Amino acid sequence: MPEPKVVDRDGFVINCLEAPLDVDIKDGGRVVVLNTKNLPLVGEVGFGADLVQIDGHSMCSPGFSCDS
Q1: 13-49 pLDDT per residue, tens
Q2: Is 66 exposed, middle or buried (0-12, 13-18, 19+ CB in 10 A)?
Q3: Residue 52 pLDDT class (50, 70, 90 cuts)
Q4: How confident is the model at residue 54 (pLDDT cuts 50, 70, 90)?
Q5: Which InterPro entries match (predicted)?
Q6: Which of 8, 42, 54, 55 suits 26 as a labelling partner, its CA being 20 to 30 A distant?
Q7: pTM score, two decimals?
Q8: What ranges do the domains of the chain cover?
Q9: If phi over 0 gives left and psi between -120 and 50 gives alpha, with beta otherwise, what is residue 57?
Q10: Count of C-beta atoms within a 10 Å radius of residue 32
């Protein structure tokens, strides 16, 4: 079986835990937003996602959006 090449994953895979943070609040949490800049596949498929990690004793309200 051939070994996978990292270059073949460009634009299809992102490690959200190692991606640059979009929001970092001290003692609150961190957010990484998937967009066409860090994952070009998002633009082709038409979806989006956020990775939200909150610290203890913090809260995060739900967010909703839609395209018109």
Answers
A1: 888 888 899 999 999 999 999 888 888 888 888 878 8
A2: exposed
A3: very high
A4: very high
A5: RmlC-like_jellyroll (IPR014710)
A6: 42
A7: 0.67
A8: 15-54
A9: left
A10: 22
Q: In what order do the strands lie in the sheet with 29-34?
A: 23-25, 29-34, 49-54
Higher pLDDT, 66 or 12: 12
Residues 6 or more apart in contact with residue 4 via CB below 8 angstroms = none
Nearest of 21, 65, 18, 22 to residue 46 by alpha carbon: 65
- No. of H helices and E strands in the chain? 1, 3
Residue 13 token pair: 């895979």
**What tokens does 3 get?**
């070994």
What CA–CA distance (Å, rounded) separates 60 from 64?
Answer: 13
